[in-house]
Amino acid sequence: MRNLYLAGALVSLACFVTAAPTSLMRGQLPDGMPSPGPSELKQIEQSAHGTLPNGPPPPAISNQGIVNLKLIAFNELFEVAFFNELITNITENVEGYRFNKAEEQTVVLDALKAILAQEELHALRANDALSHFNVTEIEPCKYQFPVQDFDDAIVLASTFTSLVLGTLQDVVERFALGHDVDLAREISSVIGQEGEQQGWFRVMQGKIPSELPFLTTSDLNFAFTAIQDFVVPGSCPNIFDIPLRTFEDLKILSTPGPQSQNLTFQFNDPDNDAAHPLWMTYINQQNLPIVEPLHIISRDGREVQAEALFPFDDHEMNGLTIATVTNLEGPFEDVSSVAKWTLAGPGLIIIN
Fold this sequence. Notes:
The chain is an alpha+beta fold. It has two domains: 10-51 and 58-241, no CATH class; 250-351, Immunoglobulins (Immunoglobulin-like, Sandwich), CATH 2.60.40.10. It has helices spanning 38-48, 63-91, 102-132, 150-177, 181-204, 220-227, 312-315, 335-340, and strands spanning 10-12, 250-252, 261-268, 279-284, 290-293, 295-300, 303-310, 319-326, 342-351. The longest helix has 31 residues, at 102-132. Keywords: Signal. It comes from Penicillium canariense.
């Protein structure tokens, strides 16, 4: 029987990348996405319990605002594919996605279908805005989701939603700096929606709905890199139109817990320079980035295994922590300055 209250208090994205996916590359997005017809759009809005905004688009947009819209579209298309596959697996009674009680399945499917439709509207809104400003819309990739059952899928959804909530903070700030005021207000409404669904994901895991008093912040480049963990390489028609960085992969080999401990990491060092010191930098809540020395355990070509302290006790590092390998010791004033000096990451840790 599928239990609506899932076990587990922590997770890192690295825990999922080695698991066997239940299915790969369902090539078609639902509902005519990414270009639904009028009747399909009407059905999406009905399923989403709301509509696309019908006010006039802003007359102009900053260059950074365009980058924001591209990243949002890239992320939302990935989420549409993820939730569509999850719904399909439940509906088709795939092993690991079955419910013994029909009423439980109905509750879950009703929630997921609304989430799917809401993510579809987010993707459409971002691409429509790009088109309005005569910028090529972002096209969907082929995706692979390394989860084995419903429990894994909910934990993964909660993990990437935590990162999205941090990234949308960066989006709002960049819109504000570019004087894209109307878009900043609209994205703020999306942050609330994402927070509502995140609360549901957390309750499904037996956690309290609200993660932190001040959610962990992030940077567009970290989200851009993380999403690519779920993309079939070479399958994105215009990913190179998104002018963001892709960092080296960072795997967390240890199991983080709610205490200070040494963690082991694995990553590639493209410079392969054993003489150059590296650091582990953590981003948690709205606090200044935390930098710890990274002690190299072994090198095999460019592959590095290293150890660093995870200083949970000193900083109350609940919720999402973003771990990155930096080639500068800092101190860093904010998450954007960390991204400028990041070699590998993000590694995602969630505790509570």
